[in-house]
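Handout for the seminar on molecular recognition.
Each group receives one record of this type.
Step one: identify the two inputs.
Step two: read the structure output and locate the region that could contact CO-5-methoxybenzimidazolylcobamide.
Step three: write two sentences on what you found, then compare them with the reference statements printed after the record.
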Amino acid sequence: MSEEEYDDIDLSALPDEELVEQMHDDLYDGLRDEIVEGTQILLDRGWAATKVLDEALVEGMRIVGIDFRDGILFVPEVLMSANAMKGGMEILRPLLAETGAEPIGKMVIGTVKGDIHDIGKNLVSMMMEGAGFEVIDLGIDNPVESYLEALEQHQPDILGMSALLTTTMPYMKVVIDTLVEQGIRDDYIVLVGGAPLNEEFGKAIGADAYCRDAAVAVETAQAKIAEKRAA
Ligand code: B1M
């Protein structure tokens, strides 16, 4: 569709289902302004932030991922989709992170060395903040040294690591092995996540748990902190 045709679409006139489909298209086409507008419209219509996130944004990104895998979309286009997704996430951030409660725990999180994917990690950070955790986000491409430095400086309860590539996920083991070597592994709850991981991998590298998505990350963090405090 041309820019002009896009300008003709009045997003606010679309019923919910069509608006969500339009947002999938807009995410695919990397149209940040439209994603921001669509996100706001759904919220104004009373949608919960998590519903907007799951049905409009994450589902749209899943479709982008399929065509990226199949060689229909390329890195520059997917970067624009990611940028549009982040536009929507910025609107949802204060809603997802809304909490008046005292922090119930602290987490340091970062994407591992060699990996620049950060959308999923950012979502985990937001949802953890929303559940009352203090989050220190180290960003992307973290070597073991930056995790160690952050653990030393912030003394968190939880270390979270994210990896989206099969080539970078083994680096999580490098970090955990280093914690073991330094005798500090048991000082932290280590949670890992990212699309190519699974439970078996989490166990094999010595993490405390693999988290399938941001909601599971929150539940797991709460359960592990409760266990640790009870012990
Ligand atoms: Co990339 N990429 N990418 N990419 N990219 C994938 C991951 C890929 C699956 C696409 C595909 O082929 N279908 C594929 C990996 C294949 C593989 O290794 N098996 C891939 C590839 C190959 C690449 C490049 C190598 C491409 C190239 O250059 N030829 C390159 C690598 C760059 C690098 O990192 N060194 C690359 C680059 C990029 C972009 C920069 C263009 C962009 C990233 C932009 C950004 O993040 N700022 C990008 C994107 C956007 C994707 C896809 C399309 C979408 C990822 C995403 O944001 N998903 C992705 C395809 C896919 O995953 N379907 C793909 C939405 C997000 C909400 O989900 O990240 O899974 P996810 O996070 C979830 C859970 O996994 C979990 O919770 C999150 C929320 O529910 N979770 C955690 C994640 N981290 C967690 C940490 C935790 C807990 C839970 O800690 C406690």
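Reference statements: DSSP finds ten helices and five strands in the chain. Residues 68 and 74 are 6 Å apart (CA to CA).
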